[in-house]
Specification:
The protein is 41% helix and 29% strand. The chain has 257 residues and is of the alpha+beta class. The protein has a four-stranded antiparallel sheet with strand order 3-4-6-5. Strands 7-8-10-9 form a four-stranded antiparallel sheet. Helix 2 runs parallel beside helix 6. The N and C termini lie far apart (63 Å).
Length: 257
């Protein structure tokens, strides 16, 4: 059973016509793909770019999409946001759970066709991602889609901090210099003022040195622009956002802090 997914332009020159043959298990599960490139798909791909991995084991012929976060504050995110989103996008039932000796929480999907769709059509990296990670070209033709992709990245790899009780700072960290530069360039085209830092860090998972790259946006105006254009969907940020919007509105109305 062959299924034509989409045709799309590549660098405004050639066209990719993609066909995928669903496996028997995928047909039984009634795996499907979105009829159009939409904001939910872009957001989900951003989540995978942040906390996900897409792989293939040649010997076992095993394809997987795995995405996990910190169980201390990620369970609600995966249970209430990501699980229904996967059902809506791909008609797959997943059950988020603990992984890696209960140190992470998220999902794992074994699907050859979904791996091919996400890597060959969307453009997410297969295998070790940091040398190949970038904003997929398929989203870059639309600011709305790219903003949704960045929102997914931010909900997994960014942090919203409130310093001194009222000063907002949005920051993200990645091992990929190219990816952080891509994000900075796109955000700056939309009027953001971004700072980028290279850091000698420590990878806590393997207890060894690691070089990371940090992107930072500070202040009320940046925060309000972010909430208007990009936003956060992660439940852990909602209380901070409400507080900051109240403080920002108070400041803008002349009430002071």
């Amino acid at each position: 059973m062959e299924k034509i997914l989409y045709s799309r332009s590549l660098n405004n020159k050639s066209v990719l016509n993609m066909k995928i043959q669903l496996t028997p298990k995928e047909r039984i599960k009634q795996l499907r793909f979105p009829k159009e490139i939409n904001k939910e798909l872009a957001y989900f791909c951003g989540v995978l770019a942040g906390d996900g991995s897409i792989g293939f084991n040649q010997k076992k012929k095993d394809y997987w999409i795995k995405c996990v976060g910190n169980p201390a504050d990620e369970k609600e995110f995966y249970n209430e946001l990501i699980e229904p989103m996967i059902k809506q996008l791909f008609n797959l039932e997943i059950l988020p759970k603990s992984f890696d000796k209960d140190t992470t929480y998220g999902f794992n999907i074994n699907s050859k066709s979904l791996v091919k769709y996400l890597t060959e059509f969307i453009g997410l990296p297969l295998g070790k991602k940091y040398d190949k990670l970038k904003i997929p070209d398929i989203f870059l033709d639309s600011n709305e889609l790219t903003n949704s992709f960045i929102c997914g990245v931010a909900d997994t790899d960014f942090h919203l901090a409130v310093r001194k009780g009222y000063y907002p700072v949005i920051s993200g960290v990645s091992k990929s210099e190219r990816f952080i530069r891509d994000l900075r360039e796109f955000l700056e085209k939309q009027g953001f003022k971004c700072c980028m830092y290279k850091r000698d860090d420590n990878d806590k998972r393997f207890n060894k040195p690691a070089i990371t790259y940090r992107l930072e946006l500070s202040g009320y105006n940046q925060f309000l622009r972010w909430t208007n254009l990009i936003g956060f969907k992660h439940p852990k940020n909602q209380d901070k956002i409400k507080l900051l919007i109240e403080l920002a509105n108070k400041k803008n109305s002349g009430g002071g802090i």
